[in-house]
Amino acid sequence: MDSSPLTLSDHLCAISWRARPGSFVSLMTLYESNYIRLGWLLPDVRAIEGRHVSLAADDLALHLEVTERCRYTTTLNLSYVLACDAGPVVTPDLRVRVYHDARLAEACDGAPLPRHEQLRRLHASLRQELNERWARNVLLNKWLEYCAERGHRFPAPRIP
User: Fold this and answer.
1) β-strand partners of 95
2) Start-to-end CA span in the chain (Å)
3) What is the pLDDT of residue 91?
4) 8 Å CB contact between 46 and 159
5) What is the distance between the alpha carbons of residues 30 and 7, in angstroms, rounded to a whole number?
6) pLDDT averaged per 10 residues in sequence order, the chain, 160 residues
7) E strand or H helix at 23, and its extent?
8) pTM of the predicted protein model
């Protein structure tokens, strides 16, 4: 079997026949897809500590910081740092909670309102928690795919 980071594919994530876009069941499938895509960038989320930067040709540096580690979860931040006249801007600044045993990754709340006008309008139109979770996690899902396609990878931690 090929051992490349993209070997695991999320196209086989089972979606219940009862699931419909925006439903809780399909949201859990999205979390499963996020976990697989995060694995493309980060081979062992349980072992990584501290701050890391992934450099890929023709893309911004991708920043990762582990902010919390518990027995069954790891919380990390993923972001780009954009150079602007007013100073550096951290965006999209996603806080991601990884559930190890369930093999799920969720983009959590807590990030500030998006800076991009269209994303702010979308955020303002979302009124329900489930819809907000969908928006955050679709963003995470597509961004992880983009980062993997651009060549971003975080090294596997070395065991002493």
Assistant:
1) 77
2) 28
3) 86
4) no
5) 18
6) 53 57 82 95 92 93 95 95 87 94 89 62 64 86 94 80
7) none
8) 0.78
Region at 70 (left for phi over 0; alpha for psi -120 to 50; beta for the rest): beta
* Residue length of the chain: 160
Rounded Cα–Cα distance for residues 127 and 125 (Å): 6
d(CA 9, CA 13): 8
Q: C-alpha dihedral over 45, 135, 144, 62, to 10 degrees?
A: -80
Q: Is 28 helix (H, G, I), strand (E, B) or coil?
A: helix
What are 67's two structure tokens?
């902010």
Distance CA 30, CA 83 (A): 31
Which residue type occupies 119?
L
Using an 8 Å Cβ cutoff, are 135 and 144 in contact? no
Q: Is 16 helix (H, G, I), strand (E, B) or coil?
A: coil
3-state secondary structure of 116: coil
Domain ranges for the chain, please list them: 10-150
Q: What pLDDT is attached to residue 155?
A: 83
The pLDDT of residue 2 is 46
